[in-house]
Fold this sequence. Notes:
Layout: H1 4-14, H2 21-25, H3 37-50, H4 56-67, H5 72-93, H6 99-111, H7 115-125, H8 131-142, H9 147-158, H10 163-178, H11 183-197
Helix pairs in contact: 1-5, 3-5, 4-5, 5-6, 5-7, 6-8, 7-9, 8-9, 8-10, 9-11, 10-11
Amino acid sequence: MxxxxxxxxxxxxCLVAPFSRAAAQGDPRLERLDEATRPVVxxxxxxxxxxxxxxxxxxxxxxxxxxxxxxxxxxxxAVRRLAADLGRARDALGSGASPVELDAGAAALxxxxxxxxxxxxxRARGHRPVTMALAVLTDLxxxxxxxxxATTAVLTLAATARDEDLVDFRRAVERxxxxxxxxxxxxxxxxxxxxxxARPGRP
Length: 203
């Protein structure tokens, strides 16, 4: 379940106040949106900014939809969902999480990781950024590794592996999959080898 702040973010994004003329100006990049969609998206982004969420991923999501020719309602829904995911990621990673960590956390949530996984990764990484660990988890799932297997693998490495080690692990799994290894087996075999070779992370 979401924590209280997650509910606040989601409620705020669903119940956006009428847009002021000043708010409708928004980010100049949003001029790509049609006149009906732009104020809706601007209001969502303004609300996210007001509760301290990073807004650049939201702008980029809206622009992605516009470039693909998605309907305005679809773009607004995508922005709203991403904002809610960013709020959930902040709940799981802590208020001190950086914008890039929150963006990576939101992607991991969309890939199927639970908020508890994000919290455990944060704890395992200590004071080190958790961005790469989250990105590797998301990438593994995208390559067909089951979410449970991917989660176990990344959590196994998270405490001691450097970011470079995590990248090497992901590349090794991708190579094995490319030559025909089942994704789950590739991740399981490679994590055992990577865990033996990983050097302690730097402070």
